[in-house]
Amino acid sequence: MIIDIHGHYTTAPKQLGEWRRRQIDNYPSGRLFREPLNISDDEIRETIENGQLKLQRERGTDVALFSPTAGGMAHHYGDFNTSLQWSQTVNDLVKRVSMLFPDNFIPVCQLPQSPGVAPETCIEELDRCVNELGFVACNVNPDPSDGYWTGPPMTDKWWYPLYERMVELDVPGMLHVSMSCNDNFHGTGAHYINGDTTFFMQCITGDLFKDFPTLRFVIPHGGGAVPYHWGRYRGINLDRGNDPIEERFLNNIYFDTCVYHQKGINALTEIIPSDNIIFASEMIGAVRGVDPYTGRNFDDTKPYVDNSPHLSDEDKQKIFEGNARRVYPRINNYLK
């Protein structure tokens, strides 16, 4: 089985984006936004069958962990109640996708984060998604200000109530920023990679996993800059008097394969142990075109893993299936 742990509902019907714009425009009025979102099951089926499901079949993958569009989380809009309503709306929509296509999509939730608002306010929605709706993980935004980094680092105890609940529920978090409203940082080309790299560096300067030895995070997009500057981060970590990175983090931090060229995957799979790599594509996401060098879509990541010279058949089984089942244990309730 080939499990893709990184999928977003980027093909949602246009009504969703229109509803969101009206919700945002309503915020300054001070009135509660009460407009229902009207999307039929047939409209969901059409977008999925002509989008992610079509590519699953063409590319030979079996099931995807599916969450709301990361760039659309946009936590800086409105206030916490705006974010809560938006998160509940898109989480419910993702749940509908998983119910219509139970063999192909497993739901992962967005959290109702908001700049300056304590992360513990997200726990109620996390509980609803996991305990009532059967979600298997959550996306955690390290920068709810969307490009300005105004909050405490993720190793700060400000975040701890959320982590405590994640551990109790035994759900991992995918570390994923959202859109950038800072013109200095392109969203998917800079802000995403900055977020991935920044979280890892925060872990080096903190002691998060001493306090939460079973907390698990997946750093997407191949880990940002981390695997490709592994010596730099190992050295900074040792210069601070810490135990080696391999001892500090490899029971808690994992990297996905959303690296869109063969040499990048070759580097990832040579440097990071196979136990800490999980297959992902983020297809119909940040990079949607065809690579003229290969004739395949950049985000068709399975062939990169297949062709890595550093992986045995056992390694590939871990990356394609085994690690996902271990890091996301609740998916085993869905899989045959």
Map the helices and strands.
Layout: E1 3-8, H1 14-26, H2 41-49, H3 52-59, E2 63-67, H4 80-100, E3 105-107, E4 109-110, H5 123-132, E5 138-140, H6 160-169, E6 173-175, H7 187-205, H8 208-211, E7 217-219, H9 230-239, H10 245-249, E8 253-256, H11 262-271, E9 277-278, H12 302-306, H13 313-327
Parallel strand pairs: 1-2, 2-3, 4-5, 5-6, 6-7, 7-8, 8-9
Helix pairs in contact: 5-6
Notes on the structure:
This protein has one domain (3-333): TIM Barrel, CATH 3.20.20. The strands form 2 sheets. Strands 4-5-6-7-8-9 form a 6-stranded parallel β-sheet. A 3-stranded parallel β-sheet has the order 1-2-3. The mean pLDDT is 96. Strand 8 (253-256), helix 11 (262-271) and strand 9 (277-278) form a beta-alpha-beta unit. It is built from 13 helices and 9 strands. The longest helix is centred in the N-terminal third of the chain and has 21 residues, at 80-100. The protein starts with a strand and ends in a 9-residue tail after the last helix. The protein is 41% helix and 9% strand. It is globular, with a radius of gyration of 19 Å. The protein is an alpha/beta fold.
